[in-house]
Design brief:
Elements (H helix, E strand, L loop, with lengths): L1 H10 L10 E4 L2 E4 L22 H7 L3 E4 L2 E2 L10 H7 L8 E2 L2 H14 L4 E4 L8 H14 L4 E2 L10 H10 L4
Parallel strand pairs: 3-6, 6-7
Antiparallel strand pairs: 1-2, 4-5
Helix pairs in contact: 5-6
Length: about 170
């Protein structure tokens, strides 16, 4: 929506009907509807870490890089924002989505090619939500990378000893 807004401003067009934007017009708020959720997260560009002095951030974090493989969480924990977000986006597409393993690995290769990465820290709410995705990720990750990674998950989403072994063998340290 920001790109649509900037384009509308540059072209002198009405920007008050762009979905996902709330604006003020003549002192009154304009609350536009939400867009459908992006179904294929592989369509999104990788985060532009250069915008925020990523070299300095990485140096301060001792080489730890935060990234995400997906969006959303299916659980309804009372302390979390996800139930509210899921309700807000109801009817606008699938809320829980993951990038392909190939896309995640491509971002990691890009990061490792530009920065002195020491550890990856996946910020996904439940990294192991899809067992097949997790096992594929572990197999391909260990073939391409040697630095450790950390994940967020839930105990019931660590399905079996095969998954635990795959995560450990791939370099998952926490």
């Amino acid at each position: 929506p920001v790109l649509d807004w900037v384009t509308a401003l540059q072209e002198g067009k009405d920007a008050t009907r762009i979905q996902n934007l709330w604006l003020h017009q003549a002192g009154a708020p304009v609350r536009n509807s939400l867009r459908p959720l992006i179904a294929n997260l592989d369509e999104l560009p990788f985060a532009d870490r250069e915008l925020f002095g990523f070299d300095q951030i990485l140096a301060q974090n001792d080489g730890w890089v935060d990234l995400m493989a997906g969006r959303g969480c299916p659980y309804g924990c009372s302390y979390c924002c996800n139930p509210g977000l899921r309700d807000r986006f109801k009817g606008l597409g699938k809320y829980v989505r993951f990038r392909s393993v190939a896309n995640v690995l491509s971002e990691i290769r890009t990061l490792a090619g530009h920065y002195p990465v020491k550890t990856l820290n996946f910020q996904d709410d439940v990294f192991t939500l899809d067992r097949d995705w997790t096992l594929q990720f572990c197999q391909e990750y260990r073939q391409q990378f040697s630095f450790p990674f950390w994940i967020n998950t839930r105990v019931e989403r660590i399905h079996d000893e095969e998954m635990v072994a795959a995560l450990a063998h791939a370099g998952c340290r926490g």
